[in-house]
Amino acid sequence: MSVLGLFFFAQSCEDKKNTEAPVGGEVVTTDTVKTSETVGNPTDVKADPGTFQIKPLKYGYDELSQYIDAKTMEVHFSKHYLGYTNKLNAALKEANNKSNDIVSILKNLDMNNSALRNNAGGYYNHMLYFDIMSPNPQKAPTGELKTKIDATFGSVDGLLKQLDEAGAKRFGSGWAWLVVKADGTLAVTSTANQDNPLMPGAEVAGTPILGIDVWEHAYYLKYQNKREDYLTAFNNVLDWKQVEENFKKVK
């Protein structure tokens, strides 16, 4: 073989070494292939010592990944929820508030105390949010809750449509809620930032039994600016068994 032939043979071998099988019809080199980013274990997430602690996650970060990606779940749980928990404990200490009842704290808030307002809300809201999701959810409500939903919204689909609209129309960051009002009736509402319907001055006051986070950190990695797609996807992981348990506690 000539010197020139040896050169092209060696170059061909080098090209094959640096090239993997086509992915989706495109040749991908080893330089451009990225390994899947690993995620941690939610059981490793612990708040600092204080009155309130994180409620353990009932599933792994990756178990909802068809609808909410694992990295979003990890950051949301281990950074945002954890951060609100630690800052709530600090705000309570600063205010010399020794209460260990989060509902009482929220109902009796000084709305001008932004540290307590934001972090008590953030703690409660995220505790509810993570609790009503499941990789194996009960797909529909039953019993008295279903009867009330049908009477109020026409059907479960009617309720979900109102929840999706409340979440989609919330400008900026906030939450969409299904609440039980003081008279026992159901209502859909939304709040800004980390406010919730338990707080003084809520537009629709009541006890939340279902809450959907529409802050961008809840969906942006997977859905970017398509909040409506995230809201639709959320319905696939919504566990009506837990929502029913929340409803029974309010009665």
Automatic annotation (TrEMBL):
Query: What EC number(s) does its UniProt record assign?
Result: 1.15.1.1
Q: Which reaction does it catalyse?
A: 2 superoxide + 2 H(+) = H2O2 + O2
All copies of the Manganese/iron superoxide dismutase C-terminal domain together span 141-246
Manganese/iron superoxide dismutase N-terminal domain spans which residues? 52-134
GO cellular component terms listed in the entry, alphabetical order: cytoplasm
The UniProt keywords, alphabetically, are: Metal-binding, Oxidoreductase
Q: Give residues annotated as binding Mn(2+).
A: 76, 126, 213, 217
Q: Which domain of life is it from?
A: Bacteria
The protein's matches in Pfam families, at most eight in alphabetical order, are given as: Sod_Fe_C (PF02777), Sod_Fe_N (PF00081)
Q: Name one GO molecular function term.
A: metal ion binding
Which function does this protein serve? Destroys radicals which are normally produced within the cells and which are toxic to biological systems.
Tell me the protein family, please.
Belongs to the iron/manganese superoxide dismutase family.
Among PANTHER family, the record links this protein to:
37S RIBOSOMAL PROTEIN S26, MITOCHONDRIAL, SMALL RIBOSOMAL SUBUNIT PROTEIN MS42
Q: What is this protein called?
A: Superoxide dismutase
Q: Which organism is it from?
A: Chishuiella changwenlii
Classification lineage: Bacteria, Pseudomonadati, Bacteroidota, Flavobacteriia, Flavobacteriales
